[in-house]
Amino acid sequence: MTDPSSPAPSTASNESWREWLLTAEPHSRNQARLGRAYVTWRRFSENRLAVTGLLIIVALVLVAIFADLLAPHSATVGDLAGARLLPPGSPGFLLGTDDQGRDILSRLLVGSRITLAVVALVAIIAAPVGLLIGTVSGFAGGYVDAVLMRVTDIFLAFPKLILALAFVAALGPGIENAVIAIALTSWPPYARLARAETLGVRNSDYIAAVHLMGASPARIVIRHIMPMCLSSLIVRVTLDMAGIILTAAGLGFLGLGAQPPLPEWGTMIASGRRFILDQWWVATMPGIAILIVSLGFNLLGDGLRDALDPRGAGR
After folding, report:
1. pLDDT tens digits, residue range 105-156?
2. Alpha-carbon distance 54 to 274, whole Å?
3. Residue 26 burial (CB < 10 Å; 0-12/13-18/19+)?
């Protein structure tokens, strides 16, 4: 007979996995990495606001993937004769329609793809550029550091939106040029952050040991210094996502981003500003979408900052 006081098999298995992950003497690098990831996730999940932000971003990704299935109507084709400027709650149009008779809900769902694509592309372009420039500048020092940081200061001297407007005006309107312009204005803070992290570790003992073993400066930067900067960089990129969304929406609002009939949220606000007093939903609904997604990225970034902070490991 089974002893009633003995733990259930699933509970015992969970406890053994937890002990294996949290052991102070891991037997392999993979075990150590999994243990750090488990501790980070446990600290992150204790923050309810951070989990809320994560759920918002996961929902955004799912909506962007299945937008064609979720959208009840076409995002670009409207009905001027029978569905123009219908209020929210109208039969078949949950969030109403715009001045072209297009369903606002469908346009928001499909437009989430544009927002997610802009955020992802800017992060993929700007973060590695800033990381490379910052680590090279901090590790090399001297004239290299002075030149790279002065270039960074020039970019930081201008407001991001104004500088993005200048780049888009030079490149021409369009979502692709908007992504390039936002990326060109987003890398300087990452370079500054990576340089500060590099200055803190370049004179450490383990870097000196790697140098004595014959590692080249490029190998030291790529294999040993860049990984040390990744946690801070990830937090900063996540926190900057809201600003990237607002910048993209601002360019779309000014007619320099995504061009009609693409359902970009900033462009939707621009087209609805003429009806803001009487048909308020045309501009309000995409504004609420921008607010919710920006809030989600900010909550996620705050949670990642607390979870990845090594000073909070003992709390």
Report:
1. 999 999 999 999 999 999 999 999 999 999 999 999 899 999 999 999 999 9
2. 35
3. middle
Burial class (CB in 10 A: 0-12, 13-18, 19+), 311: exposed
8 Å CB contact between 266 and 250: yes
- pLDDT of 155-172, one tens digit each? 999 888 889 999 998 888
This prediction has a pTM of: 0.85
- 300 exposed, middle or buried (CB, 10 Å; 0-12, 13-18, 19+)? buried
Closest CA to 247 of 164, 156, 188, 189: 164
- Predicted local distance difference test score (pLDDT) of residue 10: 56
**Cα 124 to Cα 101: distance, rounded to the nearest angstrom:** 36
Residue pair 229/198 in contact by the 8 Å Cβ criterion: yes
Percent of all residues in the chain with a pLDDT value above 90, rounded to a whole number: 52
Cβ atoms < 10 Å from Cβ of 180 = 18
Determine phi and psi for 79, rounding to 5 degrees: -130, 90
Cβ(287)–Cβ(268) below 8 Å = no
Question: Is the CB of residue 97 less than 8 Å from the CB of residue 85?
Answer: yes
